[in-house]
Amino acid sequence: MTETQVREPAGTPENSVLVNNDLLPTTKETAVWRTWDLFCLWMTSAHSIGSYGFAVGMLALGMTGWQTMLALFAGVLLLWLGSNLIGVAGQRVGVPFPVFARGAFGVFGANIPALLRALVAVFWYGIQTYLASTALIVLLLRVAPGLESWTTPSFLGLSALGWISFLVLWTVQLLIISYGMDIVRRASDFAGPVVWIGMIALAVWILGKADWSIDFGARSGAALSGGQTVSAFIGVAFLMVAFMAGPLVNYADFARFSPSKQAILRGNAWGIPFNETAFVVISIVISLATLKVYGKILSDPVELVAHVESNTIVIIAAALFAIATVGINVVLNFVSPSYDISNTAPKYISFRTGGIITAVLSILVMPWKLWANQDFIVYFLGGVGALMGPVFGILVVDYYLVRRRRTAVSELYSDVPQGSYYYSRGFNPRALIALLISGVVGVAVALVPDSQSVTALSWPAGALLGAGIMYALSAGSREPVR
């Protein structure tokens, strides 16, 4: 069967515009993502330059190293709970995120949350590719110092070496996604564990510089009062969830390939509470050691690698960080928009074509300029990203409380007015009203100026409000049985 051929789900009209081979439910033959694969998926999701920068950046809020680690651990537990809710639902229904969303938002209305998620992913895909290219540049310059003359910005704000590094990694990622989800699984299985080599080596090196002692009571920001500490603690916990809000929403893209609920729960348990906590701890340890050695915290591990005297260590560490960032990019920021864009016109856009569109858009947005513009990151990506909380709340309450875990899978592909999820012209007004109201509130909270403790509440505020409105508007509704 070729990529463009379609296996119609039972009961789905043959002329439905909502079906292509990539969006169909998982079969026993394709349900191959077991506990280890999901464990590696979450490892890959956590092991990136951005994740390290986020973790150590929380120290700037004024809490000590111990307090920051505990706050991040609380956020990890919330993320774990959310991943179980979405993961179990995604595995049971067996469809990718945009198709899963059809149950709540309508067969056409699902394009709204899907494209919102795709928009965030496209921008971050470009940014992460650029960040990975900076690690590759460090490696190349250490191997061939003569390339320094190629590092002067020359075209659209990027140097010749920058373009070469960016396009090499851009091509590698496109090749990975072009071979489908099984290659994504294999790439994740490799990229997730391998970065631990670099992190452990970096920790050993910087701890040696710090005479093997660090102060977990140290902080990089001003000391906080008791009330301020509690506020910062809550803020950091929810910021941890918000940081992973996009991947959390579209976790069904991966969970659907798992053969059992038990594999989901085990993979999530090892990948989130265990691994993400370990990554947070080693990130904080490295940052406290850099604070002692250099008098400041370096939020970019690539910058820290550049301080290493040994060429061998620099080359290995830079290569590992580049590999890790490519891994996280494919998993978090490539798979989702590929499915989401395909969902807009399934008859014409396959998963592979959606990936190509994503890759092209990631160049057109010139991510190196976006990364340099923190206002854009905060106001645009932060604002759109805040909408992931409401989407999460609506999906969870619709599946578990409104439909009570019952889904007529074949009806998710029906575009006839009599379809169970056609609602009103393909849109569910209840879900859209809930998204509009909770989305406005979530974005408003996220963009409160100069108030980190308030903006951190955008995810829980949006998620709880979206869930509450969806449940209230859906009271008494009758949903189809799977």
Automatic annotation (TrEMBL):
Asked whether the keyword Membrane is assigned, the reply is yes
Q: Which Gene3D superfamilies match?
A: Hydantoin permease
State the compartments where it is located: Membrane
Q: What GO molecular function annotation could you give as one example from this UniProt entry?
A: nucleobase transmembrane transporter activity
| The entry's keywords | Membrane, Transmembrane, Transmembrane helix
Tell me the membrane topology, using the record's own terms: Multi-pass membrane protein
Q: Where are its TM segments located?
A: 41-62, 69-89, 123-143, 155-178, 190-208, 228-251, 272-293, 313-336, 348-370, 376-402, 431-448, 454-473
Q: Which InterPro entries match?
A: Pur-cyt_permease, Uracil/uridine/allantoin_perm
Q: Coiled-coil annotation: which residues?
A: none
Gene Ontology, cellular component aspect: plasma membrane
Q: What's this protein's family per the entry?
A: Belongs to the purine-cytosine permease (2.A.39) family.
Q: What is this protein called?
A: NCS1 family nucleobase:cation symporter-1
Per the UniProt record, the lineage of the source organism begins with: Bacteria, Bacillati, Actinomycetota, Actinomycetes, Mycobacteriales
